[in-house]
Specification:
The chain contains 6 helices and 9 strands. It has 201 residues and is α/β, with parallel strands linked by helices. The strands form 2 sheets. Strands 3-2-1-4-5-6-7 form a 7-stranded mixed β-sheet, with helices on both faces. The longest helix is centred in the last third of the chain and has 24 residues. The protein starts with a strand and ends with a strand.
Length: 201
Amino acid sequence: MKVGVLVSGSGTNLQAILDAQRAGGLGPARVAVVLSNVAGVRALERAKAAAVATEVLPHKGYASRQAFDEALVATLRRHDVELVALAGFMRLLTPTFLGAFPGRVMNIHPALLPAFPGVHSQKQALDYGARVTGCTVHFVDDGCDTGPIIAQAAVPVLDDDDVATLTARILVEEHRLYPAAIRAVAEGRVRSEGRRVKIAP
């Protein structure tokens, strides 16, 4: 299954996916292209180092979100992408994009959804006084971090945590969880039943 990874920044989750691919941990999934809406980001360097095709589509060059998403879809289809993985992609996707890949767009979020959606989730958890947070891999729908949950990993919030230390510990779990979830989808082990998602062993 050919995977397109959408990025906007440093690409640590992309690196985890590429490392898993190199080690055989993605099963039948293979990253076919890494696409960024921002030129010159570290994620593109990571992809090139792994000999993965890259594309840059600056969103400011399009008149509307829909026009940008149409260009995204066309680019991904040119690479025969079947599954889309968002890895720090800082753009909300329109129904135009989601309709082109129904049930085949994944995201990872640094919180145990539905708690702390949106941005700055680690700070939200600290400000709220949560004792446990974590990360969530979910399918993307037209809401903000509201899609069906595929997998989650819990991370305790320590008394001396700040945003940086909590973020670092959550990232460890993200880097483990995301490649495993991509593999499960590619192997056909993920089944959606309404909002409930089941993963076969």
